[in-house]
Amino acid sequence: MSTDRVTFSFFRYPLGYSPAAFLFMGFRRLFIGPDVPAGDIRLMGCGGGDGFSILPDPRTYCLLSGLPDAADDQRLRQSRFYRRIAGPSEAQLHIELRPLSGHGTWAGREPFEYSGERATDGPVAVLTHARVRRNRVRSFWSAVPAIRQHLHQVPGCWFHIGFGETPLRTLATFTLWQDTEQMRAFAYHKSPHHRTLRAARQQDWLSESIFVRFRVVNVTGDLSAWSPHLAAGAAA
């Protein structure tokens, strides 16, 4: 099922709750009952540090939900599954999006319906997801530090984080930008990100990848707990 309505929700837990959060992540399918609406729902662990570390952050998790309509969003939030995720958290962030354009697949299919609209002058978000070939894991992760450093140097990035289903071999990145121009300055123009994409294509690092650009509909939650740039941008 592909969707044109997507929400990324991030949850941070107290340190003492980390073991329970990790166990829930591992056995999450057991809690997806009939009260969870049909749709694309993925619970993933996040990277440590600034979000792009090779080491996981045991306190932070991402819930990606793609549901047909707003009533399903409400049903999800009332479900036992969602309450088990959200209830113990100490900070939350919810970003509602509409897919504009993209290419590639995730788990063998296209999960989003694209509107085909050009990005507006307002905030945009970008999702990338890659599955790395076993013999290219070292090459892939050795390229990440330069991208991280450049991301901290360029203006206009309000929020960034990495997450995935499988350690080392799958990585999704989510970035939220002030506008399309700032995003393109990071992603292209002979940047570390652009050089890594070129190397990945030429040397066949990835068995699967997807790139998606979104229009930002709404951002709610404990904004300052996740990024001062996000809090300032949302208030502007």
Return the structural class. Answer: alpha+beta
Share in β-strands: 25-35%
In DSSP terms (H or I, runs of 4 or more residues), the helix count works out at: 9
Order of helices and strands: EHEEHHEEHHEEHHEHH
Keywords: Lyase
GO molecular function: lyase activity
Protein name: Aminodeoxychorismate lyase
InterPro entries: CrtA-like, Dimeric_a/b-barrel
Protein topology:
Elements: E1 6-12, H1 18-26, E2 40-47, E3 56-66, H2 70-78, H3 80-86, E4 91-104, E5 124-132, H4 137-142, H5 144-153, E6 157-164, E7 170-177, H6 180-187, H7 192-202, E8 206-221, H8 223-226, H9 228-235
Antiparallel strand pairs: 1-3, 1-4, 2-3, 2-6, 4-8, 5-7, 5-8, 6-7
Question: What does this 3D model show about the protein?
Answer:
The structure is a single chain. By secondary structure, the chain is an alpha+beta fold. It has one domain (6-235): Alpha-Beta Plaits (2-Layer Sandwich), CATH 3.30.70.100. It has nine helices and eight strands. An eight-stranded antiparallel beta barrel has the order 1-3-2-6-7-5-8-4. Strand 2 (40-47) and strand 3 form a beta hairpin. The protein is globular and about 45 Å long. This is Aminodeoxychorismate lyase.
Keywords summarizing the entry:
single chain; 236 residues; alpha+beta; Alpha-Beta Plaits; 9 helices; 31% helix; lyase; lyase activity; CrtA-like
How would you briefly describe this protein structure?
The chain has 236 residues and is α+β, with helices and mostly antiparallel strands. It has helices spanning 18-26, 70-78, 80-86, 137-142, 144-153, 180-187, 192-202, 223-226, 228-235; strands at 6-12, 40-47, 56-66, 91-104, 124-132, 157-164, 170-177, 206-221. The protein contains nine helices and eight strands.
